[in-house]
Design goal:
407 residues; Serine Threonine Protein Phosphatase 5, Tetratricopeptide repeat; two-stranded antiparallel ribbon; 9 helices
Length: 407
């Protein structure tokens, strides 16, 4: 089996050409087909160190993986050529032939194009005679610098937050790795599951509206539209803000804070226990007084009616008294006339007796009239007194009685 001439010093020189700051590293053109997310302005020193160490240890398969990873991140003619050389040294002829041909295609003016052309012929001839040789296994794990299926990136370390995290996912919220600036990272964009889509812990005030929140503006400022507790700024949300005297979180009146977020009190415009009315002002006479009592006005009608009836009764009583007095006066006059006639018995008995008999009829009539007159006198006196009392009471009612003003 023909072994390629790959001496340690020669490969070491090629690796040195990849080191940052070397003339070759500064001048190496980037491959136009390389993915933009993987290219770098200079080869990563750590990866170059892996390549150098593998070459020095003659671990050709490991060196191949390192040069392939270098070419993926920093495409250059040196990485492609070195990958071909170490693959040939490892007897991985098929991969060596692929890399030599890639160097010819990508870099037709490669400084080692003569060597590359010769190597293509050698490798091809050897493959015809002896087959493709062994196949170097690709590195199996994340963190080996070699970008494999299932990896978004691979920077050869397990440091999180440096652009490529320990699980070979690109540093970002939602990749399942907590890095600087993230409170949490559960690998999804579902809000309310403990870690929200912006990698903040599910909580009121994190700026993400989740179950049980009316709003969430990311601050604890009240009155800005979303109050602490993540409730929308409004009367009745339990948070006192500008324009509110109070806010007890309900719309019950009379419990100290009424439904318009005003303190329970006479004059707040809300009728509560102990108030007949509340028109929100302290003006008297407008239907609702400053004491929250309904405005009252004089109501003389009842008193006037009572006084009128009492006056009529008193007049009727006076009339009856007059009739009684008149009958009493008639009786008194009749008695006096009889007594005067009887007094004449000493002078002229016969004449006196005749006079008494003549006046007895008047006395009987006066006595009969007095029977009715006495009743009229008593009734009239009672009626006059009662009517007078009613008259006085009616006058008092007319002067003092009031009634509520209907708004």
């Amino acid at each position: 089996m023909r072994v390629p001439v790959v001496t340690l010093p020669a490969v070491a020189v090629l690796v040195a050409a990849l080191l940052p700051g070397s003339p070759e590293a500064r001048a190496a053109p980037a491959a136009p087909t390389a993915p933009a997310t993987q290219t770098m302005s200079a080869p990563p020193p750590a990866l170059v160190g892996v390549a150098v160490g593998a070459v020095e240890a003659r671990d050709w398969c490991r060196a191949l993986a390192a040069f392939l990873a270098l070419d993926a991140r920093w495409p250059s003619p040196y990485a492609v050529y070195n990958a071909a050389e170490v693959a040939y040294a490892a007897s991985d002829r098929a991969r060596a032939l692929d890399q030599y041909r890639l160097a010819q295609t990508r870099y037709p003016d490669h400084e080692r194009k003569t060597t590359i052309r010769r190597r293509v012929d050698e490798v091809f001839a050897t493959m015809v005679r002896e087959g493709p040789g062994m196949s170097c296994p690709l590195p199996p794990s994340c963190g080996d610098w070699f970008l494999q299926q299932g990896e978004r990136c691979d920077d050869g370390n397990a440091i999180d937050g440096d652009g490529c995290d320990h699980d070979c996912s690109v540093t970002a919220c939602g990749n399942g790795v907590v890095t600087v600036g993230e409170q949490c990272d559960d690998g999804n964009a579902i809000d309310g599951d403990g870690c929200d889509h912006d990698c903040s812990v599910t909580a009121c005030g994190n700026g993400v509206v989740t179950a049980g929140e009316q709003c969430d503006d990311g601050n604890a400022k009240d009155g800005d539209g979303c109050d602490r507790g993540c409730v929308a700024t409004a009367c009745g949300n339990g948070v006192r803000t500008a324009g509110e005297q109070c806010d007890d979180g309900n719309d019950r009146d009379g419990d100290g804070c009424d439904h318009g977020c005003v303190v329970t009190a006479c004059g707040n415009g809300i009728v509560t226990a102990g108030e007949r009315c509340d028109d929100g002002n302290d003006t008297d006479g407008d239907g609702c007084e400053r004491t929250c009592a309904i405005t009252r006005r004089p109501a003389p009608a009842l008193g006037t009616g009572v006084a009128s009836a009492g006056g009529a009764a008193a007049l009727g009583g006076v009339a009856l008294v007059g009739l009684g007095v008149q009958s009493w006066l008639r009786l008194s006059a009749a008695v006096d006339a009889v007594d005067e006639s009887r007094a004449g018995y000493r002078v002229d008995p016969g004449q006196a007796l005749e006079d008494v008999d003549g006046r007895r009829d008047e006395l009987d009539q006066a006595s009969a009239a007095w029977g009715s007159g006495a009743t009229a006198l008593v009734a009239g006196a009672v009626l006059a007194l009662g009517g007078g009392g009613a008259l006085a009471g009616g006058v008092w009612l007319a002067l003092t009685q009031t009634e509520e003003v209907v708004p």
